[in-house]
Amino acid sequence: MSDSVLSESLPTARELVPDEALPLLPVAVAADEFKRDVSASLVAEFRRLAILSGWKKKSKPYKEKRRELLAAWVTEDFEEEFGANKDSLKAWQKLCRHLGVGENLPLGSTTECHRALHGIYVNLVDLVDSYKTQTRPRIFASSEELAKYIRNTGKVFPIDQARYNPLLREFLVHVHLQVGGRKPRRRRRGRRKANAAKAT
């Protein structure tokens, strides 16, 4: 048998392995070139981008980009779904209805919506993702529980990012969101006075 006949009778590697079984090699892409699937969860999309970009989990670039992009995507998707007008009654009603609060209240004013949201603790990444799937995000019983969840999942939303969206900034105030598990520090006037007196 000739070599040409033998080579023609042997199956190729692609014939032995179906196309769907062949591994896909990641291609490095820049974050600004990444086309996000807005119907997918934010964490899943970042994980996909990290693989394509070659960022190793827990590495400095991974952590920095995760924090940066999750914040940007949350802001973008929040505005897409709820807007940016802090005086919009429809936006506040939409937020309340989605969170399942104030169902027995008329919610006829933004003030009533603010009251309904009092004591509500929710993670913003989960809020945005849950709206896409029309499911309700987890509501935490306290800021401590939410802080623990944020530490465990890394779903942090930097508070200063909210300055780009007045509605989002106002919403954060009324849902008592604690970012990164840290409560805002309050100055203790009594201790300050005592230290001043001791110094004199």
Care to describe what's here?
The model is unreliable at 2-27 and 178-200 (pLDDT under 50). The chain has helices at 3-9, 13-16, 42-53, 60-82, 89-99, 110-117, 124-133, 143-153, 166-175, 189-199. α4 (60-82) packs across α7. The chain is built from 10 helices and no strands. The protein is mainly alpha-helical and 200 residues long. Helices cover 54% and strands 0% of the residues. The longest helix has 23 residues, at 60-82.
Mean pLDDT, as a whole number? Answer: 78
Number of strands: 0
Indicate the percent of residues in helices. 40-55%
Terminus-to-terminus distance:
106 Å
Count of DSSP helices?
10
What is the element string, with H for helices and E for strands? Answer: HHHHHHHHHH
Unreliable segments of 5+ consecutive residues? 2-27, 178-200
Strand content: under 5%
Give the structural class: mainly alpha
- Overall outline: elongated
Query: Over the alpha carbons, how many angstroms does the gyration radius reach?
Result: 25 Å
